[in-house]
Amino acid sequence: MAQSMYVHIPFCTQICHYCDFNKFFIQNQPVDEYIEALGKEMSLYDLDNKEMKTVFIGGGTPTALDAFQMERLLTSIHDHIRLGKGYEFTIEANPGDLTKDKLAVMKEAGVNRLSLGVQTFNEQLLKKIGRAHNVDDVYRTVSLAREAGFENISIDLIYSLPGQTIDDLKETIDRALEFELPHFSAYSLIIEPKTVFYIMLNKGKLSLPSEDTEASMYEYVMDRMERAGYHQYEISNFGKPGYESKHNLVYWNNEEYYGFGAGAHGYLDGIRYHNHGPLKKYMNAIGNGEKPIIEQINVSMRERMEEEMFLGLRKTDGVSLEGFKRHFGVDMNEVFGEVITNLTQKELLVISEGKIKLTRQGKLIGNEVFQDFLL
Ligand SMILES: C[S@@+](CC[C@H](N)C(=O)[O-])C[C@H]1O[C@@H](n2cnc3c(N)ncnc32)[C@H](O)[C@@H]1O
Ligand SMILES: C[S@@+](CC[C@H](N)C(=O)[O-])C[C@H]1O[C@@H](n2cnc3c(N)ncnc32)[C@H](O)[C@@H]1O
Ligand code: SF4
């Protein structure tokens, strides 16, 4: 039974050049109606004050809501669920968006983790990738958040940005580490179809670091974080002990969760579902008293096994052989023996202490390794 929920806020004050998440420029959007619709959507699930271990409000930009809207959203969530012992309640925030009022509302509602989309500490690069904030905003936001009583703060960074050098990245990481926060995520830039960057790249107007440079950047990030005392618990995530994101671990552990909001996905009773992305479609469905689901996939046993592997291998901890047997009643080797032998010989995977894990080399080409597990 799912004890995690994701809530999607699809509004942003500015659209970044690399982003293909479900989001809309906030101006003239029906934000209040959307918040109301979210409440109605939750009512369509028999939550009945269900206890949640993790809640994650992401986007888009949740902090694009004003303090009143934020309060209404959080009240509506609390009308449907209660927070379990040791819960984690994350809100994603854009630097520059957070005010004392918003932070107070969030704190009051039990939010206990903030994930800040910083991306880089290089002012020119921030402009180049289309971010709305500047470097000073980051410092102001972290101070404000700390003053409001938040200590579990994470920073998202993106590397391999257009024109970025290893030295740029080093400076960004140094400045990020100076905050002594408990958690960091570092993603390598993905050029997604239909984004500004995609169009620029196709026109030959975007120059990106080479694949070798990208790999060196990733290795640098891993080593630097390790040296600073952060445990790399997932391909792109680093935390001080005890600060690994509980919500994101639900995904990688192949566990179930509710998904609410336009474009959100959820996983309940063996079914993965995906909500309508366009606001009109989402709101219309809710208006008709229907769940706003566009697609449902009944995950077969075979697919569940594949997911267990390619989600679980994202974790440094890997996938437990015994856990696999417990979940599926068969040996991992019976299903994936050939793939595992092959990848182990190539030194992309190792088996140790009853777990199968990516090697350092495997982490560098993770997506290729995961492909092999699709039977
Ligand atoms: C979808 S955003 C939402 C949070 C917030 N609006 C923000 O911009 O930080 C979550 C994170 O995904 C990462 N991200 C988004 N698009 C990406 C891309 N094309 N390549 C790599 N990372 C990306 C960024 O680090 C971003 O902070
Ligand atoms: C890229 S991750 C960044 C997490 C962050 N680094 C942290 O440590 O909390 C978060 C993004 O993934 C997307 N996301 C996460 N869970 C989702 C779900 N269930 N449905 C739809 N999108 C989801 C959202 O766009 C969200 O902004
Ligand atoms: S990266 Fe964040 S702020 Fe930028 S467009 Fe995407 S969701 Fe909005």
TrEMBL record:
<dbReference type="Pfam" id="PF04055">
    <property type="entry name" value="Radical_SAM"/>
</dbReference>
<comment type="similarity">
    <text>Belongs to the anaerobic coproporphyrinogen-III oxidase family. HemW subfamily.</text>
</comment>
<keyword id="KW-0004">4Fe-4S</keyword>
<dbReference type="InterPro" id="IPR058240">
    <property type="entry name" value="rSAM_sf"/>
</dbReference>
<dbReference type="InterPro" id="IPR007197">
    <property type="entry name" value="rSAM"/>
</dbReference>
<keyword id="KW-0963">Cytoplasm</keyword>
<dbReference type="GO" id="GO:0006779">
    <property type="term" value="P:porphyrin-containing compound biosynthetic process"/>
</dbReference>
<keyword id="KW-0411">Iron-sulfur</keyword>
<dbReference type="GO" id="GO:0046872">
    <property type="term" value="F:metal ion binding"/>
</dbReference>
<dbReference type="GO" id="GO:0051539">
    <property type="term" value="F:4 iron, 4 sulfur cluster binding"/>
</dbReference>
<dbReference type="GO" id="GO:0005737">
    <property type="term" value="C:cytoplasm"/>
</dbReference>
<dbReference type="InterPro" id="IPR010723">
    <property type="entry name" value="HemN_C"/>
</dbReference>
<keyword id="KW-0479">Metal-binding</keyword>
<dbReference type="Pfam" id="PF06969">
    <property type="entry name" value="HemN_C"/>
</dbReference>
<feature type="domain" description="Radical SAM core">
    <location>
        <begin position="1"/>
        <end position="231"/>
    </location>
</feature>
<dbReference type="InterPro" id="IPR006638">
    <property type="entry name" value="Elp3/MiaA/NifB-like_rSAM"/>
</dbReference>
<dbReference type="InterPro" id="IPR034505">
    <property type="entry name" value="Coproporphyrinogen-III_oxidase"/>
</dbReference>
<keyword id="KW-0949">S-adenosyl-L-methionine</keyword>
<protein>
    <recommendedName>
        <fullName>Heme chaperone HemW</fullName>
    </recommendedName>
</protein>
<keyword id="KW-0408">Iron</keyword>
<keyword id="KW-0349">Heme</keyword>
<dbReference type="InterPro" id="IPR004559">
    <property type="entry name" value="HemW-like"/>
</dbReference>
<dbReference type="InterPro" id="IPR013785">
    <property type="entry name" value="Aldolase_TIM"/>
</dbReference>
<dbReference type="GO" id="GO:0004109">
    <property type="term" value="F:coproporphyrinogen oxidase activity"/>
</dbReference>
<keyword id="KW-0143">Chaperone</keyword>
<comment type="function">
    <text>Probably acts as a heme chaperone, transferring heme to an unknown acceptor. Binds one molecule of heme per monomer, possibly covalently. Binds 1 [4Fe-4S] cluster. The cluster is coordinated with 3 cysteines and an exchangeable S-adenosyl-L-methionine.</text>
</comment>
